[in-house]
Write a structure and sequence with these properties.
This is DEAD/DEAH box helicase family protein. Keywords: ATP-binding, Helicase, Hydrolase, Nucleotide-binding. InterPro entries: Helicase/UvrB_N, P-loop_NTPase, RE_endonuc_C. It contains 27 helices and 26 strands. By secondary structure, it is of the alpha/beta class. The protein has four domains: 243 residues, P-loop containing nucleotide triphosphate hydrolases (Rossmann fold); 237 residues, P-loop containing nucleotide triphosphate hydrolases (Rossmann fold); 139 residues, no CATH class; 105 residues, no CATH class. The strands form seven sheets. A seven-stranded parallel β-sheet has the order 3-4-2-5-6-1-7, with helices on both faces.
Length: 762
């Protein structure tokens, strides 16, 4: 499997937040190192404030101080210290790699150092550079040339100093901040390195330093060590900044949840006296939650993984026993066999389970002692740690790989982010040294399917992406601690949720007939001349493109003056717009050469904004054309829906029992369900499941509800995908059914009879 990457708006915004801080600087490429920023403190501060203003962030009053400049290196100019706050699981590593590529493309800077607090994170970063290389090659025509600093392989530093293209060194803090013999080599004149000190070679390039998880690299000693790199600027990426600098972007936990960029969280609290019985119960709950999720997602081609944190390796791997299984591993095997012995109704899933022996479905990922080869508790500074975890990420995502349960020491809480972790078990005592935010962050990423595609359709994202945390605290205690760290997140009690079985309404002939009517398969075709697209885009840009010039304010003691300036930022204009619109460079070239001169002249005002707004207009026109020209053809075969288990719901908050729904309670949008219940003409209603999709050239469309009335049925957009273009395509799809008994409505279906007291819902 190969993970797929795509341009996402929220990540593009994070990249632009950093890159736009240097607007007005001309591009300058050099193999000798990074050229100076070229902006004075006043201009730089105004740029930063402009970025903060558009993001609604607090405005900086002066440039933040960060890493002190070493006395031995009197380099000129200010050193910007920019903070980017991104919730765990939203792709901050991807974001700063793309930021590196943008800083190179726009300004010519080519020497970067990524500093991480430990080996686990270092290996995770290195892996991300590897798996995104092809993606960035396609987007930029080149890829970052990365290497991991190794004091015994200093030839890489020669390439870092003089090599062409984007050069990135990944280094963990211990490699230059501890007193070990190997780590001191960075500060020593080495015979094998032409009597040079590696630190001098690095600092001479004036690198841009990117700090991953800066809250763990904040000691005075660490900052003093970092200052020896003599950075041109410092960019800090974290979900939990402890020391604030100039914050230019924020995507916090609540925003990430509301925008459906991360999994939602369910908590199962296992209370009781500590001991083997409690741990066994936790392991049982982890297996139960895993099988429940796996049973639901197997047909979708989504591999389910569970991560169990333990406090001692010996409780998983006991080398004194013939089978080398520790007490937790033995408990797991016993509980897993007992729970999978129950007959599964789904034949394909039953075969999948039967093909995986209990002994092969779990694995332990820990540090490895280099002398004995045995697993050890270890720490993030062990240079031999985590190779298997981090280098086999794609293999673990494959349904062909039997490992589904991962045991790890708590050191794995950072550095390992697998998108398909759906269950986390805390088989250890809470000691207060590890935040809940770090632990659950290992499972917050949105899942991917067997094609490596992220399961992120807004209409179904939280129906599929839910992380269950099995903890040894009470639900209330865990949630209280989590909310102190993350803010007011939506967290549900996993012990109170139940699967809703379908009731007799589902089996009624009227409902089954309605299903038969709406589940016809269909294919679409779209045909229009590229000339029509070009012509309409030219008109739309000439009429609607607005790009205000960059404005700067200069203040002195006696006066304040305001200026507008043309930007001298250089962009690959065709490449940028082509990437954001998914059109060819040739088509974009024809559009931009067709606009009026005064429209194209707006580029000088602000190239970055010109690209974004042009792409938005072109995408809108493209969507309009696709909707106008899409044609559907129905097929004789039908799709099957409602094949999976029913939705989960907290019965304590379920509300009144429903008489006309196919479940006794509504898992989503209960107010709409109650409104349908009150209508005399509604016989049966149901929230359509995520597998009911209408194919469109703009992506699959998920409607909201199926409402069965006397002699007809209505599919509504209410509560489903609200994209107007895809809704318009859905109308075409229903028209193609050519069934007078099936209609499509944006809201609730019109009623034949509406009592006065209930007319508002029609």
């Amino acid at each position: 499997m190969r993970l797929q990457f795509k341009v996402q708006e929220f990540q593009t915004e994070a990249v632009a937040a950093v890159v736009d801080c240097f607007a007005g600087r001309s591009s300058s490429h050099s193999r000798a190192g990074n050229a100076a920023i070229g902006l004075d403190a006043g201009r730089l501060l105004e740029n930063i404030r402009a970025v903060q203003r558009r993001a609604g962030l607090p405005l900086s009053t002066c440039l933040a101080a960060g890493i002190p400049r070493p006395d031995a290196v009197p380099s000129p100019g200010v050193v910007p210290n920019l903070d980017v706050e991104m919730e765990t699981g939203t792709g901050k590593t991807y974001v700063y790699i793309k930021t590196i590529m943008e800083l190179n493309r726009r300004y010519g800077w080519s020497r970067f150092i990524v500093v991480v607090p430990g080996v686990a994170i270092r290996e995770g970063v290195r892996k991300t550079f590897e798996i995104t290389a092809e993606h960035f090659q396609q987007a930029y025509g080149t890829r970052p040339r990365h290497f991991t600093y190794d004091s015994s392989a200093l030839h890489e530093l020669e390439r870092f100093r003089s090599g062409a293209g984007v050069q990135v060194m990944i280094i963990n803090l211990q490699a230059f901040n501890t007193a070990g013999r190997d780590n001191r080599r960075i500060y020593e004149e080495l015979d094998g390195f032409s009597s040079q000190r590696p630190i001098d070679v690095i600092s001479a390039s004036r690198p841009i330093v990117v700090i991953d998880e800066p809250q763990r690299i904040g000691s005075a000693r660490s900052l003093e060590s970092l200052s020896r790199f003599d950075p041109l600027m410092v960019l800090r990426y974290s979900a939990t900044h402890r020391v604030r600098h100039d914050l230019v972007h924020r995507l916090d936990a609540l925003d990430a949840y509301r925008k459906k960029l991360v999994k939602r969280i369910a908590v199962v609290g296992v209370e009781g006296d500590a001991g083997p019985a409690k741990r066994r119960l936790q392991i049982r709950e982890v297996i139960r939650a895993h099988l429940d999720r796996e049973r639901e997602l197997f047909a979708r081609g989504v591999k389910v993984l569970s991560l169990l944190f333990i406090d001692q390796v010996a409780r998983y791997r006991d080398y004194s026993r013939p089978d080398q299984l520790g007490e937790y591993a033995r408990m797991f095997v016993e509980e897993y066999r007992a729970m999978t012995a129950v007959a599964e109704p789904d034949e394909s899933y039953r075969r999948y389970l039967a093909a995986i022996p209990a002994e092969r479905t779990h694995q332990g990922y820990f540090a490895v002692d280099r002398r004995s080869g045995r697993l050890i508790d270890g720490s993030a500074s062990d240079v031999d740690a985590y190779d298997l975890i981090l280098r086999d990420r794609e293999r673990l995502l494959s349904l062909d790989e039997p490992v589904r349960f991962v045991f790890s020491h708590s050191a794995l809480r950072e550095g390992w982010d697998n998108p398909n972790v759906f269950v986390i078990g805390m088989l250890k005592r809470g000691d207060g040294t590890v935040s809940r935010r770090q632990e659950i962050g290992r499972g917050l990423r949105l899942a991917v399917d067997q094609h490596g595609e992220r399961v992120d359709d807004p209409a179904v994202v939280h129906e599929i992406n839910e992380l269950t945390v099995v903890t040894d605290e009470s639900y209330a205690a865990f949630v209280a601690g989590l909310q102190r760290e993350r803010g007011a997140d939506v967290v549900v009690d996993g012990r109170r949720t139940r699967r809703l079985p379908r009731n007799d309404n589902f089996r009624r002939p009227e409902f089954q007939e309605a299903l038969d009517r709406i589940t016809r398969r269909a294919v679409y075709r779209v045909a229009f001349a590229s000339g029509e697209l070009i012509e309409r885009c030219v008109v739309a840009l000439d009429e609607g493109l607005v790009v205000a010039p960059l404005r700067y304010t200069v203040r002195s003691v006696s006066e304040t003056s305001r200026h507008t300036l043309d930007s001298d930022v250089a962009l690959d204009l065709l490449g940028e717009v082509a990437e954001q619109t998914r059109l060819t460079r040739r088509t974009i070239g024809a559009i931009l050469t067709g606009v009026r001169p005064r429209t194209f002249a707006l580029y000088r005002n602000d190239p970055s904004r010109f690209v974004r707004r042009s792409a938005e207009i072109i995408c809108r026109v493209k969507a309009e054309l696709l909707v106008e020209h899409v044609r559907y053809e129905t097929l004789p075969s039908r799709n099957r829906i409602f094949t999976g288990p029913g939705p989960r719901i907290d019965l304590d908050r379920a509300g009144p029992r429903l008489a006309k729904h196919i479940y006794d309670h509504a898992a989503t949008d209960p107010a709409f369900a109650q409104a349908l219940e009150a209508r005399h003409d509604v016989l049966i209603h149901a929230k359509l499941p995520s597998e009911f999709v209408i194919p469109t050239p703009l992506g699959d469309y998920h409607p909201g509800w199926l409402v069965v009335l006397d002699g007809r049925c209505v599919v509504t957009a209410h509560g489903g995908d609200d994209d107007p273009a895809r809704i318009a395509c859905a109308r075409r799809w229903f028209e193609a059914l050519n069934d007078p008994g099936v209609t499509f409505s944006v809201a609730a279906p019109p009623a034949a009879f509406r009592p006065a007291a209930r007319s508002a819902i029609a």
